Amino acid sequence: MKIATFNINNVNRRLPNLLAWLAEAAPDVVCLQELKAAQAQFPAKALREAGYHSVWQGERSWNGVAILARGAAPICTRRSLPGDDGDKAARYIEAAVKGVLIGCLYLPNGNPQPGPKFDAKLAWFQRLNAHAAGLLQAGVPAVLAGDFNVVPTDDDIYPTKSWTKDALLQPEVRAAYAALLAQGWTDALRSLHPDARLYTFWDYKRDRWARDGGLRLDHILLSPHLAPRLKQAGVDRDVRGAEGASDHAPAWVILRRAARPRGESGDPRHR
């Protein structure tokens, strides 16, 4: 099972890029962020023609999240992060796909900091961690994937001091991410590539793509039920270099098939 996350940065504007990547990479599940499209403007028909069923939560100007599934319809279980009934931003959606619960998230950026936006980021992170703990307590095979808007360590950013004051690198944000992992979640990319410089985002400004001035903001976290099935993980960084590209590249994992219970075989008579 191949699961990917991709901050598409305007799904309609980047639709040709998205369709080209889907055709080449053939992920089974995709979490999209930053749709920048109202609910009625999401290109569900074009994606369905490409072989993907969708659930989504749109927002006209910013935000927006979606889960795509190839060959199966995602069953939506949640359209917002619990803990704040006043939060109307389209930043979280959850769906069951082929026996796995997928949580797609777009965590607030938090800039400028310090200030109200940074406080809101930390509050949202706290709610995410509480919900994530509940998923682990429920014992379901789960994935949390998306743009976390956090650079977990200095190994997840190119050598620079220009981002030091940015909300993405602040100690409080890194601590919240570390606390999430401490619950038992596995950072899939870092687990398989512990020493690699892996980036998923290159700002449009200051020629950062050309000089590989990247950051790792997009993460795929696996629950303890899924972590042993982790086979491969990577970043399709060439997607960032295409004409009209998002400033993010897709990150992905491949999970081995779940082991069948003892006594069960591929023969339908034993199912």
Automatic annotation (TrEMBL):
The keyword Hydrolase applies. Its cofactor is Mg(2+). Keywords: Hydrolase, Magnesium, Metal-binding. It holds the Pfam family Exo_endo_phos. Signal peptide: none annotated. Residues 4-248 form the Endonuclease/exonuclease/phosphatase domain. InterPro entries: AP_endonuc_1, AP_endonuclease_F1_BS, Endo/exonuclease/phosphatase, ExoIII-like. Its EC number is 3.1.11.2. One of its GO terms (molecular function) is double-stranded DNA 3'-5' DNA exonuclease activity. This is Exodeoxyribonuclease III.
